[in-house]
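One-letter codes give the sequence; the integers encode the fold. A sample entry reads:
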Amino acid sequence: MNPAPITTSVFDLFKVGPGPSSSHTIGPMKAAFDFRQRLAQLSDDELQRTDAIHIQLYGSLSATGKGHGTDRAIVAGLLGWQPETSDPDELLRLLKDPTVTYPVQVRDRVFCVRPEHIYFNRKRYESPYANTMVLQLTGAQGVITEEEYYSIGGGFILRKGEPAESETSRSINLPYPYSSMNELKAQLKQNKLELAELMLANEMAVTGQSRKEINQRIDDSLEFMHKAVRRGLRHKGVLPGSIKLHRKAPVLYKQARGLAQSSDSFLIFLNAYCLAASEENAAGGIVVTAPTSGASGVIPGLTYLAKHHFHYDKTTLRNGMLAAAAVGFLVKHNASISGAEMGCMGEIGTASAMGAAFLTYAAGHKIDAVESAAEIGIEHHLGMTCDPIGGYVQIPCIERNAMGAVKAYNAFLLATSGTPSFQKISLDSVIKVMKATGRDMSTKYKETSEAGLALSATEC
């Protein structure tokens, strides 16, 4: 049986929402919102026998959930907030005062949620995914109803009992189905298509939207990304959290402008743009997952550079974004973009590969060069651990966004400096290696803050 074709939407990969973590913030908020919707479907008799909502967190959601704001995100979702419309300042105010209760209304019943209703469980929980949350509605007789959710990276969630994308994708009639880079290249060759045209046609089938609507949404996603960059270039001071990390982006940007004629200014500008978006994410601001919030500085930084330094027009930027999405889809479909599953190679490694694909395709190169650039981007992130200090998406996460973008640019240069067909390792092969590496990696190095750089927290 052939693998199911990829039916993820571009706008599921590039989601708008509050930082600092798509797995720990956007995903849990969406799960809590879904749970709220399901409670509204209970009978009056069932609701009358209930008295409280309890949230059980496991895996990385438990280990680093406090630093990532998982508890705030869950409360927000239960209150009916959605990631794309949340006010980041209001979100940061949730749970500031432990004495405040939050009323969750389900028809004529009101359940008061407080911090003590959220449990950060450190015991092992048998689950198919590292980030698991169980939401329960309880009464005098115990649990009346519960739902188990998995946050699988990039703000994507699954509910226990629901089919995964791979099990439902066959029902969508894609004009150009593919599940690997080899299949994608075969579709392009057979149908004499450019990559952007194929991606647009599939996106229209997945979303039911027109070409014009999709192009506008891509423009909107880019604008959200670039707003994050611009905010980050302006905002100074210290980021939220116990680390007391000072923002660097405004200083770097000022330095780059002062060195405009220097050969170093290009790199300093790129670093400033990536740090700006990533620092906004760390502060809980509105960002775009690309493919995750933890990696939401790479693509924004590169696209901002392409727009303001290369002067690419809207069409070129859109086409580059579609090429980036193609690579992100392949990693998500055949490995994972979750730091809790793959370590940081799943987040920054994927973002770097997507960024390399963006640069290569936007510069006018064909699919072989795009594949080569993406492969190089992943290859040189293999085995990268996810070990945030204090559970915050700050150290080493923010600088890794800048480093991932620099690697993406170098991957673009390497892939386009020779003959792409001479590349010995295919993108499909390196994604398989990535998946195997993630499976072999100790859980201590996968977003739990139990090893690596996270252990230097006492020195900060």
Observations:
- The chain has two domains: 20-159, 172-459.
- The mean pLDDT is 94.
